[in-house]
Amino acid sequence: MECALKITRRELCERAGALVLAGAALGTLSPLLNFVPPAHAQSPSPAELAVAGPLGEMSMGADNAPVTIIEYASLTCSHCAHFQEVTFPELKKRYIDTGKVRYILREFPLDPLSAAGFMLARCAAKDDKNKYFALVDTLFVQQKNWVVQKPLPPLMAIAKQAGFTDQSFEQCLANQQALDGIENVRQRASEKFGVNSTPTFFINGKKQSGDLSIGDLEKAIEPYLKG
């Protein structure tokens, strides 16, 4: 199963409106109202797929691992949260921690609320990349608590547990550079790589969509390890 990019402009505006902070955040998040599904996306070349976004890659594992897995995810996607909770720990234990897989997480927010979560994770990672994955994991685990009609209070509570203050929380969500970098990754994936739902994976360049099990991943990974 996967989370599709099927959200109305009205829903986007309502969620963006819930994130208004001192009148600034709505303007910050407004570029995410322009979701457009890809028209003629082709299979990406390895070189194209390897290009990192303006904010840099968020990755785990050895740089020279024989397998690279790129996941495009949305923090508000229930199937992404399920993958993170059930499958990712096994993927990390069996393949990432053992040097067999390099894992890259790329932001593909399906709505402004997901974009806000990714912005907070990027801000948290300024001094330590591990804080990015820690906050992303927390946001997935607590998804039902903050992906709600009034998301600001629970989202702020989670951010404060990660070390944010009221001021740094507001400053982060008003960071246009962070939003532009996230939007660049989302738009490029949509237009060039045909990504229109989450989670979507590229395993050594081969695209697979949906909430993959560890068995699914094993079938895709193992042939590259036998060579």
Task: Report on the architecture of this protein.
With 227 residues, the chain is an alpha+beta fold. The chain has a single domain, classed as Glutaredoxin, CATH 3.40.30. Helix content is 52%, strand content 13%. The chain has eleven helices and seven strands. A hairpin with a 2-residue loop joins strand 6 and strand 7. Helix 5 packs antiparallel against helix 6. The relative contact order is 0.21. About 15% of the residues have low confidence.
Based on secondary structure, the structural category is alpha+beta
The CATH level-2 architecture is identified as: 3-Layer(aba) Sandwich
Gyration radius over CA = 17 Å
Tell me, what is the CATH class?
Answer: Alpha Beta
Distance between the termini: 31 Å
Q: Approximately how much beta-strand content do the residues carry?
A: 5-15%
Query: Shape from CA axes?
Result: globular
**Low-confidence residue ranges:** 6-40
The total of beta strands comes to 7
What is the ordering of alpha helices and beta strands? EHHHEEHEHHHHHHEEEH
